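From: lab user (bench 3)
To: helpdesk
Subject: output format question, protein + glyceraldehyde-3-phosphate

Hello, I'm new to running complex predictions and I'm not sure whether the block I got back is the full result or only part of it. Here's what I submitted:
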Amino acid sequence: MRKTVIAGNWKMNLSEKEALSLAHSIKEKIPAISKGRISMIFPSTLHLAGVAKILQGTEILVGAQNVYPSGLAAFTGETSPEQLKELGVKVVMIGHSERRQFLGETNSFCNEKIHFLLKNDFIVLYCVGETLMERESGKTFEVISSQIREGLKGIHSHSFSNLILAYEPVWAIGTGKVATPAQAQEVHFFIRKEIAGLFLGAKEIAESISILYGGSVKPDNIQTLLKEKDLDGGLVGGASQKIDTYAGLF
Ligand code: G3H
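Helpdesk reply: Thanks, we reran it on our side. This is the complete output you should expect:
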């Protein structure tokens, strides 16, 4: 039985006051939040400490949107997993399309980060997805295949229990244009097939890993999406920054 995971990515949004106030409101709403799901919030790095403190001891996991794969060292502007641990942060998002597109993050750098994090007992939410141009030129599966094969290269079978995947078609992010359930299902199925092909015995892992869909997810479309066989949750951007949507989404 795969776990249903709903993750909220606040990206580089909200002032400190807004982020902390949203965290307090989420805490109050926890009784209304669906049971039996894993809920995660990813505030900006600057707000991690404050949000993690507010949600400490609750069922909501607080995660980081990025990390540098090193212990404490001279990497100006970066954050070490060691520093995240101190805050009680156990989940890190890797490979979000905004980092790939605007910050030049490659599959191989994602792979380095994933190795480092899994070795240090973090849960990793690894994001993949094609751009509109890639989809329109018939490259969707080729792109996803490289992101899976290169991003997850050399990951040991026993570490997969700490991995969650997210499929986010870039053309559906923040555009209001949601992938149809059939479009999302087709790619989620493909992702599972790619994972099954990673190494001998990976078929079982592919069946048990949670794959979230991201791209304009809202309370009014999440249920339809979750009806698809290979969709196990949502990675929510815009809607996760509004408290009103929490009871319907998380
Ligand atoms: O990480 C979240 C995604 O990029 C989706 O963002 O829900 O605003 O489309 P969105």
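A quick orientation on your result: The mean pLDDT is 95. Let us know if anything else is unclear.
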